[in-house]
Structures are given as structure tokens and as C-alpha cells.
Here is the input.
Amino acid sequence: MTVTAQALNLELQEIEREQFDYLNNSWLIISTAATKYKIPEPTIREWRIRNGYIRINRDYFPAKVNEGDVAYCAAVYTIRKKHGFIKGAPLLDKDGKPYLLVQPKLSEYRSKKRMGKSTLIVE
Here is the structure.
């Protein structure tokens, strides 16, 4: 595992969902959440719709997302972005904890493959 991946995993292990519990009673529309947490709207929509990382309250129109969930995902996303690992691996694991990179080269390969530049280099 590369030094960058090790540093990333160490930072990710420090993030706990409970750190954001105080925000669980707050609900934001997606555009407001995107602006507040500096995350692209499509990314938040993917977290909510495709991956189910974010709870939604349909009692409002437009529907609102749970700010605690958004803040938690944004913290994980920001750390991964800082280390250059945004795509290629899930944001959270099956237990809802930050997904730790085991094979960073494979994550990089998958990301490049989606962009049409796939060459896997195994060390």
C-alpha cells in the first residue's frame, strides 16, 4: 500500500458518524447542502438515491436530506479528495463506515477505466 493510501486510511479511521449526530434534526434541500458543504449536487444525489447513504424527508417539497448524513459523507469525501482518491471505491462500507482502501492501484485503475484510460500496473 502506498504512503498516500496509508495516510488516507488513518484519517478516515478518525471519522465517526456520531460526530455529526447534532445535525440529525436539520434538513436541507440538496442545492443548499451542496453549497454549504462544497460538494457537487450530482454527488449528493448519488449518495442519496443510488447508494442510500443519506436519509431523505419527503414531507417537504422539495424533498430535504438529513444534514448529519450529508456532513458525514462530506467529511469522508473531502479527505479522499485531498489524497486524490475520489472515485474507484465506495465512499462507505456495508457497515456505514468510511471505506478503507486496501488496493489503491485497483481503485486508480477502475477510475481510469471509467474515463477510458485503463492500464493496471501491479507492484
Q: What stands out?
A: The two ends are 10 Å apart (CA to CA). Strands lie at 27-29, 56-57, 64-66. Confidence is low (pLDDT under 50) at residues 118-123. The chain has one domain: 3-114.
